[in-house]
Design a protein that fits this description.
With about 700 residues, chain A is of the alpha/beta class. Helix content of chain A is about 25%, strand content about 25%. In chain B, about 45% of the residues lie in helices and about 20% in strands. The chains are: A alpha/beta (about 700), B alpha/beta (about 300). At the A-B interface, strand 2 of A face strand 8, strand 9 and helix 10 of B.
């Protein structure tokens, strides 16, 4: 017989009570009234006599009643079944989520995380299922439930340890929300099995505040899934991080290129003095004099570093204890040279003509050296021009030469000032004849039906910027593109005539504006849309590299490789690898400078740690609960898994057998017998001859 | 001092068992039963002519008052005998009965108080039958009732009523009632003190001496329960004093020897005082027939008379 709540057996100690009462009764209850005590001396109580028990049967009954009551409360049961490994109904299903993000690279954290997983392995019950997932930016299974059940029970721990030995913290950010949601989904996906046991996620993580938990906000947790957090805590130390900031705005007219970095110090830091400076990409000592900066704990400072002349490609921070977030890789900015050819005959100073506005719309900045080169009518168009703007009528030779360039991939913006200039575009567009007539709207025309999905207008897609109605057009050319069905109308006038049309020609394209931005034709040049449109055109043409978003580790990197171009990647470490042809995605796994050889071109990309990951201060304790995660408040008790299993089975067996009822009934019967016996004894003692008292 | 050897007639099973006697509710009937049984047995006894007044015969000598010549004896024996009387007048007897709480103890179905009351009533009835005047004083720590000796017929009833009052009081004061009797009784007479003497004895001797000095003849009956003599209890219990309420844990088996020793010494002290002062002392236990007490009483008086005269 076993007991569900054996602590109640301590109630058996109450057996001493009847014995004590029987003894106490001997000493205090009985009184003899006597005529005079003048000859009597108090007798010291004689123990042998006092401890003599009378009413043995009564005492026995009382003790038995108490003992049975204690036994009943201890909820006895008979063991029914032995533990069965296969398909235990109450077996737990558990996913251990191991954090392998960059913040786990801190000293000692990974070893502690592995120790926690090892503890989980030891605490696993015989019928329990366990899966181990590693997660950083993405979550990936190290050991699935299938692997677990397919492995013999005695080899499971070794298998998990082997799998864990293969991984180590990478450089990725912590996408905790996605990992938790993925684990919860994996838990409820039982693949047709009916599992009634508890389902639990065990999160082994440092819970850095840089973890991305926002995914949890709208997530409705499946019922029955609980989350247990095993936090691994780093040794207290100073951790400061350095983060690359975006370039200053173009309005910042500075003569020399600089790079700005933000130095952030953790709230629990003990040191405040750091030095920041350029280092070689491969690491090493500072190149030049580092900038000393003072950052109090929990605060951040922005440090501006001049771009050095040498091959420096990294900025390092020194002075803290954790190294993983101390380096940012930077491609030092160089001024980009873009040449724009303008085919027209106007004077650069005529404030009513397109050239005047074009030159002012494309100024030279430290990062961008824009050159607008006028090309007189009839002259050859320079081949290095990224974009050719045509406003005047092209000569036949020019048109033919330009068409060759367009066929090779050039972008031409044609804004014919008059019908003749428009007609002269026909050879460029590959048309023999092109009927063009002057359009004269009543009053003015406005742009309508703009295709905001087109790269030219995608910047204006936001409703805040999509109002083109302030651009009035007084004169335009009514163009007919029925001969070129591939022409795409990007915008129309409000009367339905095409206003902006993209005509693909070979690899290149010709964007035709039905109106010009000279003051006679329209207000386009003086509107706020003009400069963004031009830059969008430059970007679209490929001449102007879009400001690259800071590339983080484990984020997909888009490559500009064509369908058949092979890509050779040279990472910060290791030999160059060749990607399969047609691959235009690459996922860097560690920060550093990546060099891509794509069809003879070389692209260089700096990949850095997600700056959020550097926030290593632990999350508030209730943060996960606040986000709705079913965090288990109590840790599982320290009983062995076998013990847990047996306790569960015992609870079930006890619930079926309900032996306690019989013990309670027996207790009542004994008490009844005791009452009868005591009553009889009391009557007998009353009728017994006793010294007469008044 | 135990009861002297009873006369054979009294010992021959004709005595009324105290247990049966106490079953009679009326005190007067009880007293009558004892006296009549005593007198009934007396007829067959060889002892004749017991009387309080009558003391003895003596041979007539010339000059004696012829009034006291017993002509009947002369008729039987042809000798002149003079009836000798102790007192010319009737006897005046003052019964002094203890009604303190300690008298309410009893182990044999009746209490010492019952027994003592019956004894007092018996004596009163007996004396009344003889035409003597009987008075009663009851006491506990104080004097409770006082009835002066009278000879009237209804006086006996008052006396019985006073004897039937329940016992009370928180102590036994032996000196006060005796002194009171000495004060109140001018004429010489007989004082019979009935008590358990479970009280300090400091004043007893002085009080008895006072009585003797005032010319009172004194007899003492000590009434005890058999259980008191032997501490006849088995289980150790808390013993509670009837008068003071004091409680003491006593194991009788352990305390018996000391108890008996102290008790014997106490009673010996009582007897010693009585002996010293010439007071008749008799100890009675409540399981002894009352006739014996009566017999012993008269026998002692006879001896005293003899001794006194001798």
């Amino acid at each position: 017989m076993s007991f569900l709540t054996p602590l109640f057996l301590l109630g058996g100690l109450a057996l001493a009570l009847p014995v004590i009462f029987h003894l106490i009764r001997r000493t205090t209850r009985e009184r003899t009234v006597f005529s005079s005590l003048m000859f009597l001396l108090p007798t010291p109580p004689r123990l042998t006599k006092r401890s003599r028990l009378e009413h043995w049967l009564l005492l026995l009954l009382r003790c038995l009643a108490l003992a049975l009551l204690a036994l009943g409360f201890a909820r006895p049961f008979f063991k029914e079944t032995t533990i069965n490994d296969a398909a235990v109904p109450g077996a737990a299903r558990r996913i251990v989520l191991v954090d392998t993000s960059a913040s786990m690279r801190r000293a000692g954290l990974w070893a502690e995380a592995r120790a926690r997983v090892d503890l989980e392995l030891r605490a696993i019950g015989p019928g329990d299922q366990m899966a181990v997932f590693a997660f950083a930016r993405e979550s990936r299974p190290l050991l699935s439930f299938g692997d677990w059940t397919a492995t013999p029970p005695d080899a499971r721990a070794a298998l998990v340890n082997a799998k864990l030995a293969e991984v180590s913290p990478g450089w990725g950010a912590t996408n905790l929300g996605a990992a938790l949601i993925g684990a919860a989904e994996a838990l409820i996906d039982t693949e047709g099995q009916t599992l009634t046991g508890p389902r639990e996620i065990v999160l082994v993580s440092d819970l850095a505040s840089g973890s991305h938990t926002e995914g949890l906000q709208g997530y409705e947790w499946p019922k029955g899934v609980t989350l247990r957090v095993e936090t691994v805590a780093a040794k207290a130390g100073t951790n400061a991080s350095v983060q690359l900031l975006a370039d200053p705005t173009d309005g910042d007219r500075q003569t020399a290129a600089t790079v700005r970095v933000r130095v952030r110090n953790a709230a629990d830091a003990k040191r405040e003095q750091f030095s920041v400076g350029w280092v070689p990409a491969a690491g090493g000592a500072f190149m030049g004099v580092p900038v000393e900066t003072y950052v109090p704990p929990g605060q951040s400072r922005i440090v501006t570093l001049p771009v050095p002349a040498g091959p420096a490609q990294a900025i390092a921070l020194r002075g803290d204890d954790e190294d993983f977030d101390n380096t940012v890789f930077v491609i030092p900015p160089v001024a980009q040279k873009i040449s724009v050819a303008y085919v027209g005959s106007e004077s650069a100073d005529d404030a009513r003509q397109p050239f005047y506005f074009l030159r002012r719309a494309l100024p030279t900045t430290p990062r961008l050296a824009l050159a607008v080169t006028p090309v007189p009518t009839g002259a050859g168009v320079p081949a290095d021009a990224a974009v050719v703007v045509v406003t005047d009528a092209l000569s036949a030779g020019q048109a033919t030469a330009l068409r060759e360039q367009v066929l090779a991939g050039k972008t031409v913006l044609a804004a014919p000032k008059n019908v003749a200039a428009a007609v002269a575009l026909a050879p460029l567009l590959g048309l023999a004849t092109w009927p063009v007539e002057e359009g004269r709207p009543k009053g003015y025309a406005m742009l309508a039906e703009i295709d905001f999905k087109h790269p030219l207008f995608v910047a204006f897609a936001d409703p805040r910027f999509s109002d083109f109605s302030k651009i009035h057009v007084w004169k335009y050319r009514r163009l007919d593109f029925s001969a070129r069905p591939e022409a795409r109308v990007l915008a129309k006038f409000d009367n339905g005539d095409p206003a902006i049309v993209e005509v693909p020609v070979g690899k290149g394209r010709v964007v035709v504006l039905a109106t010009g931005w000279n003051t006679e034709d329209s207000q386009l040049a003086v509107s706020s849309k003009f400069v963004p449109l031009l830059y969008a055109l430059l970007e679209w043409s490929g001449a102007l590299a879009a400001p690259g978003a800071p590339q983080a580790v484990e984020e997909n990197l888009a490559l500009s490789a064509g369908p058949n171009e092979a890509v050779v990647v040279t990472g910060p470490t290791g030999p160059a690898t060749t990607l399969a042809a047609g691959t235009n995605r690459f996922t860097p796994l560690q920060p550093g400078i990546y060099r891509f050889e794509i069809g003879g071109r070389t692209e260089v990309q700096a990949v850095n740690l997600d700056p959020v990951e550097a926030r290593t201060t632990p999350l508030p304790a209730d943060e996960l609960e606040r986000l709705g995660a079913p965090v288990a408040r109590t840790k599982p008790s320290a009983v062995s898994p076998i013990g847990q299993e047996m306790a569960l089975q015992g609870a079930e067996a006890e619930g079926r057998q309900k032996l306690w009822r019989w013990f309670v009934v027996a207790t009542l019967l004994f008490l009844l017998g005791e009452s009868l016996l005591a009553g009889r004894a009391a009557r007998r003692s009353v009728t017994a001859p006793a010294p007469l008292a008044p | 001092m135990a009861v002297a050897n009873p006369p054979p007639a009294l010992a021959a099973g004709t005595l009324i068992e105290p247990k049966a006697l106490m079953g009679i509710r009326s005190l007067e009937l009880r007293a009558r039963a004892v006296v009549e049984g005593f007198l009934h047995g007396l007829h067959r006894s060889p002892f004749h002519g017991f009387s309080v007044e009558f003391t003895e015969y003596r041979a007539y000598t010339p000059g004696d008052d012829l009034r006291y010549l017993d002509w009947r004896v002369f008729a039987r024996s042809d000798r002149y005998n003079i009836k000798k009387f102790e007192d010319e007048t009737n006897l005046r007897c003052q019964l002094v009965a203890d009604q303190s709480q300690s008298m309410t103890f009893g182990s044999g179905g009746h209490t010492k108080a019952h027994y003592a009351a019956t004894l007092a009533a018996t004596l009163a009835y007996f004396l009344h039958l003889q035409g003597d005047a009987v008075g009663l004083l009851t006491f506990d720590e104080n004097v409770r009732d006082f009835l002066p000796p009278r000879q009237r017929a209804d006086h006996l009833r008052l006396l019985m009523l006073a004897l039937e009052k329940p016992a009370g009081g928180r102590a036994t004061n032996l000196a006060a009632p005796l002194e009171r009797v000495a004060q109140l009784t001018r004429k010489r007479g007989l004082v019979v003190l009935i008590s358990d003497f479970l009280a300090p004895l400091e004043q007893l001797e002085r009080s008895l001496l006072l009585l003797a000095a005032s010319g009172q003849e004194t007899a003492v009956f000590q009434v005890l329960d058999p259980a008191e003599l032997t501490l006849a209890f088995e289980r150790p219990t808390l013993f509670q004093d009837m008068e003071t309420g004091r409680e003491v844990y006593v194991d009788p088996a352990a305390a018996r020897a000391g108890y008996v020793e102290k008790m014997t010494a106490h009673f010996a002290a009582v007897a010693g005082i009585c002996e010293k002062l010439g007071v008749a002392y008799q100890r009675l236990t409540t399981d002894q027939p009352l006739e014996l007490a009566l017999f012993e009483f008269l026998e002692q008086r006879r001896r005293r008379k003899t001794r006194g005269r001798g």
